[in-house]
Amino acid sequence: xxxxxxxxxxxxxxxxxxxxxxxxxxxxxxxxxxxxxxxxxxxxxxxxxxxxxxxxxxxxxxxxxxxxxxxxxxxxxxxxxxxxxxxxxxxxxxxxxxxxxxxxxxxxxxxxxxxxxxxxxxxxxxxxxxxxxxxxxxxxxxxxxxxxxxxxxxxxxxxxxxxxxxxxxxxxxxxxxxxxxxxxxxxxxxxxxxxxxxxxxxxxxxxxxxxxxxxxxxxxxxxxxxxxxxxxxxxxxxxxxxxxxxxxxxxxxxxxxxxxxxxxxxxxxxxxxxxxxxxxxxxxxxxxxxxxxxxxxxxxxxxxxxxxxxxxxxxxxxxxxxxxxxxxxxxxxxxxxxxxxxxxxxxxxxxxxxxxxxxxxxxxxxxxxxxxxxxxxxxxxxxxxxxxxxxxxxxxxxxxxxxxxxxxxxxxxxxxxxxxxxxxxxxxxxxxxxxxxxxxxxxxxxxx
Amino acid sequence: xxxxxxxxxxxxxxxxxxxxxxxxxxxxxxxxxxxxxxxxxxxxxxxxxxxxxxxxxxxxxxxxxxxxxxxxxxxxxxxxxxxxxxxxxxxxxxxxxxxxxxxxxxxxxxxxxxxxxxxxxxxxxxxxxxxxxxxxxxxxxxxxxxxxxxxxxxxxxxxxxxxxxxxxxxxxxxxxxxxxxxxxxxxxxxxxxxxxxxxxxxxxxxxxxxxxxxxxxxxxxxxxxxxxxxxxxxxxxxxxxxxxxxxxxxxx
Lengths: 448, 252
Prior knowledge:
The structure holds 2 protein chains of 2 kinds. Chain A is mostly helical. Chain A contains 20 helices and 6 strands. In chain A, strand 3 (about 300) and strand 4 form a beta hairpin. In chain B, helix 1 (about 10-20) runs antiparallel to helix 2 and helix 3 packs antiparallel against helix 4. Chain B folds into 2 domains: about 5-100, no CATH class; about 120-250. By secondary structure, chain B is α+β, with helices and mostly antiparallel strands. At the A-B interface, strand 1, strand 2, helix 3, helix 4 and helix 9 of A face helix 3, helix 4, strand 1, strand 10 and strand 11 of B.
């Protein structure tokens, strides 16, 4: 019984976290709420960036403008479009559509599974909960593969279950965290299945999976770097041919994606990046710095001077600290614990930098803490390893200490709803920092 | 071993037929058919499944013309065929492809109500006055609970310096509007002196102030104009919304 104690207590902790997170957050449309101006003194659109509302039996419910495309596209996925003279306009997007096509597709699949009985809004909730549960499974299995410690796997799964990146988003339509799910799914499938397939089938799988990743909040970029670092660091494994085949499929997937978007006259996210201009200017800035010339007015990676390194990168790293300081500390320790897994720390650093590259290449230095999400995945894996090792050290004392660490980490993730919103959407105090928000419309009160 | 029997599949044929000689002729026939399937098509099942998927995808395109949905279906299908060798899984994936690409679902869009366009403004007529009455419900209780607050009137709009503001039930301090996107944001510190704060806005002479029209909603009630009260400290924030009462001719 004593040997089972750590595993049973950690499994119970995981179950309790999942129930608590679900009950506390399932009824809140945080995607809309976070755009309310009263979460920030710096100002957002009055009314929450909305201009229309869903009509429901309980009254009107605001629909933030950015989700309307996803809502409509999920419906379009269900329809027979053969009667349309032109297919331009079948799928719509105010922004780059390929970021979120996958979320619309998943919602449409759920509606199909209900034979059309379920509404698209409810289907999105099912999708979000499903992706959350799937991610818990993926990180559990990944941790098993990487560390071979079931307690570490349970601890990682529990931390992911309480992570606001998922728990705030049960009613989301944009599914902005899709990149994290994609990365987890990609790493899991690669380690357990893809790696063992014949080359042709690795290529087949890669083509399709890259394509899905190109439509999934930039998820393909994170997986690309994971595979590249893994192949470079572990080149003795002799699987680099498979990795080369997988990598070779990426341009093919990009081409197919381009053709599809051209069919609908939509612009890809990749087309909005000004790689050339940003890189050219960065090289000139670098050259001027080397020559000792003045850098006044010059930009490097869209930031003046070298403030990309002095401001943006530290701010990026600090966003993780702001998200959960304990997970960051434990995660770094955990990633350094095993020599054969040190490369994961390198992937975490690259994921952090890559997360913020899209806004850099678009030329918009806006800060978005959730871009640190993929890096946080590796810190959660590292934290899980530390907690798992402590738990297995000596029962019951080790178990108690590990549970205390796990609960403290969960507390930092889950105790403050407003802080969690801030972490997800702003970071570093961009949004309101009060612990509780009371919003009165006449006598009607909403508490956050 | 010599001749053809050095090949494993030939030995299987010979062995299979010999072993089957003691069973029922129909069973033997079925065994032979299964064997022919395995030997003829098993090495090619991945290709066969891919061809089947392409056929379904092509047919779906002819029927529905929903290219994006078909592309997703195909990608999921090919990914499954590439990853798993089990025939039942592959057949399930093929069934998924058929169900999600060949058949449509007529799910009407949920009813929506258009409220305002983003960045739409409500300009003041020269003789117009807009009054907002805020009942500071639970204010004293929240102060006991959270400590003292810093209060502010928050206004979004244009030419906000051109607003003449009268206040009842509080003391306002001056502030300068700050630019925010294509409009302005004005944050006026306020200290309430009563349980109800009433703000009355008119346009100063020579100015054309406008208030941003938002989509703030509670139930079916719309609170359209971007004027609200905010009381904040480190622990709590209280927000009060009110609807405007519009009057003409400068009367209260």
